[in-house]
Amino acid sequence: MKRVLIVKVTSLGDIVQALPVAADIKRAFPGVEVDWAADEAFAELVHWSTSVDRVLCAPLRRFKKARRWGDFKAIAASIAELRAYRYDYIIDIHGVYKSAIIAFLARSSKRIGYQSQDLGERGAAFAYTGRFGPRPQRCDAWHGMRISASEALGYEVEGPAVYNLRLPEPATAPFAADSAPVAALFHATSKDDKKWPLPHWVAVGRELAQRGFHVVLPWGSEGERAEAEQIASQVPGSTVLPKLNVTEIAQMIDACALVVGTDTGFVHLAHGLQKRTVMIFVATPPSHFGIEAPFRSISIGDGHSVPPIAEVLKAIDYVHSEPRAVAIQHGSAAA
To answer: In this structure, are residues 319 and 278 in contact, taking their beta carbons and an 8 Å threshold?
Structure first.
């Protein structure tokens, strides 16, 4: 096998959790070239993976919103790039119309996708010449992607997920080298039903400050900044960060000693970067979408109710209960 194309277009957390598929393929087939097709908004993240040789991207999301001529031309140009190579296999681990169209346009006689009942959009089935087996029921969505790809290409999944992320060096260090250990609280969510109450964040922030952490609060919108300022006003020594782009947030995460947050893309990224991470679930099931690595990452909550403060503090104790070296067993750390 010489070249494989993985199609996983969005979103940040899903792409992070799909990256181990590329590492699995590299391990199973030494010397194989692995390309990845993603939306332009998330291509930067895929470029950080040392398991991916070529990143193909187009402004699909932006074009859908604005319908600008420049974006249309960029999409047209990306098709030529997509068809520059012939692939032994195309693996669509997204399963919607846009990923299926990409798979169909790429050059290969073997385009593998989910069975109809497992597709995000059933019409995507038109693109495939073969199907994955039934979606595994006794594992989370992330391990399920690894199993699907392995069955399609004929190898065994071995060991824990390996992310192989290498970030660009920051122009300046996110935090002073001699400062207290930093704990980032990702309180913001894409949906209101995923939010953990602000008074709970204040209580956890205060506890972390008492333990000697410098608590920092990232944000993405003006509403999120206002919430961050509310929390910071009640947590001694805490800092509301300036507006950061995706790369800057990743570099900030990589400089942290602890990340606590809701079920969002950046908290999945923290897990992929081998940080000590606690993910809080309020409205979605952690058994399907959570993170877990012994003494490093843990998901809490039942997906139906608000986890209590004590449960989060217990989880923080857990991820700090063993030496940092334990995490090395769970994939390559970010450079």
So the answer is: yes
